[in-house]
Please model this.
Amino acid sequence: MKITGIRVHVLRSESEAFPNESLVRILTDEGIEGNCLIESVYAEELVRRFAAGSSTYLAGAWNIGAERLERLIGADPLFREKLEDSWRAQYFWSPINNPASCAFNECLWDIAGKVFRLPIYKLIGAHRERIPAYASTQFYEREEEYISLAEKLKSEGYRAMKLHPTRDWKKDISLCKAVRKTVGDEMTLMLDPLNSYSREQALRVGREIDKLNFYWFEDPILPTDIDGLADLCSSLDVRILMGEHMQNLRGYTEYIRRHAADSLRCWDVNVGGITPMLEIANLAEAFGMKCEIVSWGNPLRQAAALHVMLAVRNCDFFELPIPAGTFDRGFADHIRISNDGQIEAPTKPGLGVEIDWNEIEKATMKTLAYP
Model:
C-alpha cells in the first residue's frame, strides 16, 4: 500500500463561535483513506507539507541527510514512526507543527485500522470496551443556568460533570456549592477555570471544593507557574490536573519532577495525535499517575481520544461536550452516553466514525489537493 495524495474539504463555519474546519483525506492506492477533521489553517499546512515533501528543498535548507527525508507520496502509510521522524527533522521550527502532525498521525492510524479491519484501540491493545463519561459544560453567565443544566444532565444519566465556571473565584465557590447541593453526593464533579486564578484564589477555591468532594481541579493557575502548582498539590486534597497546553512529551517531566501535578492531561491537537497521547499516558502510569485525555471536539477527534482511553489503564473519564451533538455536523456516527453514563467502544474499523458525505459536500467551500 502506498500514499497517493491528500485532499482537503474546507468547510463553511456554522457560527462565529467555531473556527472554520476542514476534513482531511489521506488517500492510498488501495482505495483506503484516513480521515481527520481539524481547523482549516492546520489542514492547509498539511497540504503544503505534502507538496514540500515531494522535493528535496527542506532537506537542503535544514541540512538533513537523505536518510532522514521521507517523501509522503509513495510512502507506506503503516510506517508512521518513520514518516513522523522525517517531519520532526524538517519542521522543528514550525509554530503549528503539532496540530498538522496530529491530523497526519490520526489519518495514518485510521488507515491502519481499516487495513487490518480493527478498531484502533484493539490494534493498540485493548484494555476495556467502555469508559465512564463526564459532561463538559460551556461557560454560562448565571448560576441558575448551571443548576438547571446539572438537573437535566443527572436526569439523562450522566454520573459526572465538569464545570467551566465564571472564572470569578468568589462566584465560582458559590457555584460549586450550589451544583453539589443540586446533584447530591452520588455525582462526580470537576472544576476547570482555564488557568484564570491567582495562587491565593486557587488555594481558596481548592479548600472549598475539598469540602465538596470534587474529583479534580483542572488548570487552576497558569501552566508555567510550577512553584505555585507544587504548592497547590501539597496544600489540597483534590487532585490538581495539568498538561492540556503542553506541546511535547518532555514538557511533562517538569510537572512530574517538581510534584506540580497530581494527574496529567493531554490533548491530541497540542501533542500531535494518537501516538503521543499513548506515550504521555504511559509516562504518567510509570509514575503512578492518572492521565485524563481531552476529547472535546468533533466525532473524529473524540474517537481518536476514545481509542487511547480504551487502550490504557490510567484514564478515568471520557469528556463529552455539552450540549451533546455540538460538533456533529458531517457525521453519520455520533458519540453518546449509554443509560448508565458510559461511552461504548467503536465497533467499526479505524477511528470507527462514518462520514456523511452529502453533508460534507454541502458544507464544502473549496477543496485543496496534492498532487
In short: The mean pLDDT is 93. The first strand starts at residue 3 and ends at 11. The chain has two domains: 3-117+356-370, 122-344. The radius of gyration is 21 Å.
